[in-house]
Amino acid sequence: MSMDLDRLVDEVTREVKARLMQASPAPASACSSGSECEATASQCSGSGHCHVRKTRVIRAMQQLGATRFSAQPGTGRSDADIARAIDHTLLKPDTDRESLQRVCDEAKQYGFATVCVNASNVAFVARCLAGSPVKAIAVVGFPLGAMTATAKAFEAREAVRSGAREIDMVINIGALKSRDYALVLEDIAAVVDASKPYPVKVILETSSLNHDEKVIGCALSKAAGAAFVKTSTGFGGGGATVEDVELMRRIVGPEMGVKASGGVHNADDARAMFKAGADRIGASASVAIVTGQKTKSKGY
C-alpha cells in the first residue's frame, strides 16, 4: 500500500503541476449589451439577443413544453440554466417535514437539479420528488468529516437505499492536515464504493485548509474516483470563494465537477462561481438566486 500510495502521490503531483502551468485567463467580454456575456469577438455578434437576455421568451417556451435551447458558445447562462445547476439545500438540524415539503415544491417549481438534505430526511424528500426530474442528495459525515471510513460508507449505503441519487461527503480534514493521505484516500474510496452507481462529491471545507492542502484534497478526491469536489459545508465558518473555485477547477481539470457552496446568495454570486469554473451551486437561497429576491440567509 505504501509503494502504491507513493506512486500515486508522484503521479498526482506531476498532473497538478501540469495543470497549474496550463492555466489561462478567462476571455475578455465582447458583448456590447452588457458585462454578463463572456464571449470573445469571434464567438458572438454582440447583438444582445442571446437566450441570456430573452429570459421571458425562454420561460414562455418552457411553459409550452420546450426542454432544450440552443445557443452560440459564450452566451452565458440564463436563469433557467442557473436553476438546473443548483442543489437546493436544507441542512439545519431543526428541519421539519413542512420545511422539507416546501423546498421540494420549490425545486420542482423552479427546476433545480436536486434537493440536498441530511441522510435522515432523504426517504421523505425522495418520495416528495418522485415523478419529477429533481433528485435527492444526502450529505455524509456531515459537517465535521471526523467519522470513520466504515461509518461514512454505511451512512452512504443507507442513504442510497433510502432514495439518494447523489452523495456529498465531508473529507477527513484532520487526516488531510496530518498528511495521512492513505487514510484520506481510503475514506473517500469507501464512500465512492458504497454509493455506486451514484456520484460522490467530496467537501473539502476550504476555509480550514491552506493552498497545498486544497490541492492535495482535490488530487486525492480525483484518485479515489469521486465525481466532484466541493468547497464547503456552510457550517465551518467560511464559504465558497472565486479563488478557491478557480484553484479547484485547475487541479481537477475537465474530468471532474466543481461545486461551490456556502455564501452564494444571489445571481451575481452564482455567475461569479460559474465563471470561476463551478458546475454546480449549493445554496439555501436558491429561489432568491433565480428570482432576484433578497435573502436574509447568512449560512449555506
Overview of the structural elements:
- The radius of gyration is 19 Å and the shape is globular.
- It contains 12 helices and 8 strands.
- It is an alpha/beta fold.
- The protein has an 8-stranded parallel barrel, surrounded by 7 helices.
- Helices cover 44% and strands 12% of the residues.
- Helix 1 packs across helix 9, helix 4 (97-110) packs parallel to helix 5 (122-129) and helix 9 crosses helix 10 (242-252).
- The chain starts with a helix and ends in a 9-residue tail after the last helix.
Task: Please give a quick description of this structure.
This protein is α/β, with parallel strands linked by helices and 300 residues long. The chain is built from twelve helices and eight strands.
Task: Work out the number of β strands.
Answer: 8
Order of helices and strands: HHHEHEHEHEHHEHEHEHEH
Strand order of the largest sheet: 1-2-3-4-5-6-7-8
Between the first and last Cα atoms, what is the distance in angstroms? 38 Å
Whole-angstrom Rg: 19 Å
Sheet of most strands: 8 strands, parallel, barrel
Low-confidence stretches at least 5 residues in length (pLDDT < 50)? 24-43, 45-49, 51-56, 66-76
The global form is globular
Helix content: 40-55%
Mean pLDDT across all amino acids: 84
